[in-house]
């Protein structure tokens, strides 16, 4: 099939608010083939009945407005249309949504922290969050997922003209949690979006961050860090849809895996549509496989429909700790365990510096320490 | 007073035997130069003694003050007092020079240096080797030029103060100025106490700055001739040809 007979893009085919528009996944579909459907507790086929039990608590900066609204609020779903079955299920099933608004030309004086706490593995819930950053406003937002739940949600980041939003999303669930989530950022003219995703805990976490642009000058930087332990499935599916000229995106995800049955999945889709001239994009995924029995699937897809790009590239590498690094450190007297710790820290260091919130950075550092001590 | 004693050492990489019976003894206060053509096994000797996993010791022994180095892990050998300055120092992403050196000093000395003293010691060491202090915050060897990497190796040598130092082609890739700075570092180390040096080199150039007491000519995986500094002069004049033809005969 030549380019001329392809659909507009093969990477972003479908979106709808209606669950019925998406067949129940079987696991053979490209977008579901890595996900262990049997461990989703029915989120994908409509059998996960809502019991509640995920409490959303917002500690907002004084300049920021926080509301809890019903399904009928007209602002919801404007920035994002669900792109798969679970996302549509969450969209049609949530009862209350949280709306965070950063008013026009306001710089929030401190981070706004949204804590989502699951009450236990029996809790099943659907959620929706809208973060609206009005023109020329600036804010830092933390999404902190804790406890345990079976939870599917959509988070919309609507970043208006000239606005800046920096998000840190921490998936620090208990071992038995199941979380399927979409984060979508819609960027206006000259808007800046920074996302830092940290996924550490949960039985299955499938997080799909995506970005679209409504006008030129949008700038998105998506960074992710994950540490996968035995029998955990942590999946990140990135999609950046360049549909307007002169926007930028950069995706960097790095993970470490250890233990039998540890499974990381990273999908990095970037579309540069015919009209998106002057696009500058790069995506990178690296996986550090620390033990036998761990597996990383890493699939970058770059679909370029114009010849006029400023830059477009991707890289993906999964491998073991480099013996030469370890040898060099050991040759200076540093014991093996300490050498390994230094190299793994080094693998994550440059990314950690990007976390805007010092408390979160410290927390992630100590979480990595704890993982290495296992 | 320390002695590194290498006896009848045979080393293979995979199925291929590289070292075929090496005997050497290096005592503190002595500087030995090993010279030889490319592929003669000089670097193999250095890495095998340090414990690089790529090399298999098929027979022989290596003792440091009577203790069997071959029974030790790589880091134990370093803590026992062996140092290898590498021909190609490894880039370690995300690990700063300062963090790396502090970890190494802590491991070798058995206790963490006080931060202030460490900072002072590091600065003095870097000054002596004309290393820009900004390097302390850079990732270990990452993006360093060849000369910067070699200075960084000698900085480690001076900070870790081993009993025996093996310097593997520390002179290669250095311009004259860098060669002088690096040689001065080696000479400071030699003058600092009871230390022995095994200098591995292809060229006689560095021997003008670092005077050896003994010269060993390496060919075909073993020492084929030994002598004093005058042997280096002979090699300078005649090259290695005599030895390489001897081996193949």
Provide tags for this entry.
A: 374 residues; mainly beta; 16-stranded mixed beta sheet; disordered N terminus; B: 249 residues; alpha/beta; Rossmann fold; Fe-S_cluster_assembly_SufBD (chain A); SUF_FeS_clus_asmbl_SufBD_core (chain A); SUF_FeS_clus_asmbl_SufD (chain A)
Largest sheet of chain A: 16 strands, mixed
Order of helices and strands of chain A: EEHEEEEEEEEEEEEEEHHH
Residue share in helix of chain B: 25-40%
State the low-pLDDT regions of chain A, or none. Answer: 1-7
Number of separate helices of chain B? 8
**Total of domains of chain A:** 1
Give the DSSP E fraction of chain B (strand runs of 2 or more residues).
25-35%
The CATH class of chain B turns out to be: Alpha Beta
How many angstroms does the end-to-end distance of chain B come to? Answer: 41 Å
Query: Mind telling me the C-alpha Rg of chain A?
Result: 20 Å
Global outline of chain A = globular
General shape of chain B:
globular
In order across it, which strands form the biggest sheet of chain B? Answer: 6-9-10-3-11-12
Instruction: State the low-pLDDT regions of chain B, or none.
Output: none
Helix/strand class of chain B: alpha/beta
Report strand % of chain A.
Answer: over 45%
Q: How is the quaternary structure best described?
A: heterodimer
**H/E element order of chain B:** EEEHEEHEEHHEHEHEEEHH
- Overall pLDDT confidence of chain B: 94
Organism (chain A): Microbispora bryophytorum
Pfam families (chain A): SUFBD_core
Protein name (chain A): Fe-S cluster assembly protein SufD
Family (chain A): Belongs to the iron-sulfur cluster assembly SufBD family.
